[in-house]
Automatic annotation (TrEMBL):
Family designation: Belongs to the ABC-2 integral membrane protein family.
Coiled coil: none
One Pfam family per UniProt: ABC2_membrane
Membrane topology value: Multi-pass membrane protein
UniProt keyword list: Antibiotic resistance, Cell membrane, Membrane, Transmembrane, Transmembrane helix, Transport
Transmembrane portions of the chain: 40-63, 75-97, 131-149, 155-176, 188-207, 243-265
Name of protein: Transport permease protein
GO cellular component, one term: ATP-binding cassette (ABC) transporter complex
Source superkingdom: Bacteria
Residue ranges of domain ABC transmembrane type-2 in the record: 39-268
MF annotations from Gene Ontology: ABC-type transporter activity
Gene (name only): drrB
Record's subcellular location: Cell membrane; Membrane
Amino acid sequence: MTGAAAGGLTHAAPQLLRTAQDGLAVAWRNLIGLRRVPRLLVFSTIQPLVFVLMFRYVFGGVVAPALHGVSYVDFLIPGIFVQTVVFGAMNTAIGLATDMQTGLMERFRSLPMARSAVLVGRTTADLVRNVFVVAMMTGVGFALGFRIHAGVPSFLGGVLLVLAFGFAMSWIFAVVGMAVGDPETAQAAAFPVLAPLVFASAAFVPVNTMPGWLQAFAVHQPVSRTADAVRVLVLGGPAASDVWQALAWDAGIVAVFAPLGVWLYRRAV
């Protein structure tokens, strides 16, 4: 290794450590805000609860015959996990847009902190919130008859996959929030992004029940790939291909939208 390369690595290590420390500080600030407004966390769990009850008892009888013996609640709950973190990612857009509108971003810029720390902190705080919400939805699922068929370690792997996907989706909505700059517009702009991904997917119904033209989209999109991977980890079966495809989507989303979000942050403030 040349002296220049070694020097570059020596310089990069403290920079990464500083970015991580700044990101955790911002994440802690966001979590304190969540603790002070617990209603936000409560309502974050009400929406997926409504979806569970609606699909379980309203649409379950229609969908169940297409599942070939698999209980609909066992099919549904992994999809609800994914739907929950996707809808929850909208909070990233709203939170960042609110910070821009109130001038907090300008105050962050005046501090000696890494430029990416604001976005890293927001997405990390939303990841922690997702841990709580997914845990709550697991309890609701068990109360409605959901059961783990492939063992606890496999189920926990599925939960980690859901959380990774939620973290990736937060970066998409971080870009949305930075691009629009106010919370009302952020909420309005987020829905056209998340609605096709969630409802035209394998989250709630088997893809083979959809029209042929819609199946092409439903199969090749990240919500379906993640829901199928989590479902296999919960119900059992060969999981490697589905899991790797879901992780590839996560990595690709972060690789594209994290730099884009930081670039928008630099421009915005």
